[in-house]
Amino acid sequence: QVQLVESGGGVVQPGRSLRLSCAASGFTFNNYALHWVRQAPGKGLEWVAVISYDGNFKYYADSVKGRFTISRDNSKITLFLQMDSLRTEDTAVYFCARDPGGLTRYYYFDYWGQGTLVTVSS
Amino acid sequence: EIVLTQSPGTLSLSPGERATLSCRASQSVSSRYLAWYQQKPGQAPRLLIYGASSRATGIPDRFSGSGSGTDFTLTISRLEPEDFAVYYCQQYGSSLLTFGQGTRLEIK
Predict the structure, then answer these.
(1) pLDDT, tens digit, for every residue of A26-74?
(2) How far apart are alpha carbons B86 and B103 in whole angstroms?
């Protein structure tokens, strides 16, 4: 079965960096686009970024553009989110999610990981 | 950016009743790019509906989606105890994905 498992969350000071990982299994990883979606404590969902199946297309929400970088290693079946210049408002649970579009993108999410909590605080 | 407004914010109903959740967009949304999710406390969201009206794999047929343009609806025909949760609509357009703020469905 499809599984996505995030890791790398923790407590970090404002202005510092953190790298999240999402390990995948149960599907042909290099055939699907992947997304990061976040949820601040007690709040709704916010889309963060998308990467195409081959890593050649990336797009970001305005709130993280220029600070976050999405990437993937298809040989290691892992998705990443490099988060730099972190702000207190980046505090959230970060989910990785699969786009069901295969080699294209449908821009919704059919499988989600359980999330990893990032807390930005001094 | 397309803003999605969900109503009501909270819906109080009893098991067996019918639930109607609304999602209104600030601009027209392609039905192809409208989805609904269910989220329970401490869990990841779960895809219910995609393409405005297609049920995701394994979703019971008491869940249905409808609508077009700027007005979309999620209907749960007969509420089961496990249906009480928060529901989000989500759209893609103009290179941005946005979610509604959610509707909390609670037991009356």
Answers:
(1) 999 999 999 999 999 999 999 999 999 999 999 999 999 999 999 999 9
(2) 6
Which residues, in sequence order, are bridge partners of residue B72?
B23, B67
Q: Which strand ranges, in their side-by-side order, compose the sheet holding B19-29?
A: B4-7, B19-29, B63-76
A38 near A119, Cβ under 8 Å?
Answer: no
A116 Cβ contact partners less than 8 Å away, ≥ 6 residues apart: A6, A7, A8, A9, A20, A93, A94
Residue-wise pLDDT for A22-38, tens only, equals 999 999 999 999 999 99
Return the structure tokens found at A14.
């404002």
Phi, psi for B31 (deg, rounded to 5): -55, -30
Query: What number is the average pLDDT over the span B6-11?
Result: 97
Q: Is A27 on the interface with B (CB under 8 A)?
A: no
Contacts of B99 in chain A (CB under 8 A): 44-47
Do the strands B10-13 and B103-107 form a parallel or antiparallel pair, or are they unpaired? Answer: parallel
Query: CB under 8 Å to A102, separation ≥6 — which residues?
Result: A31, A32, A53
DSSP string, A48-92: EEEE-TTS--EEE-TTTTTTEEEEEETTTTEEEEEE-S--GGG-E
A42 vs B contacts (CB less than 8 Å): none
Chain A contact present for B44, CB below 8 A: yes
Side-chain-facing half-sphere of A87: CA atoms under 13 Å: 7
* Rg (alpha carbons) of chain A, rounded to whole number: 13
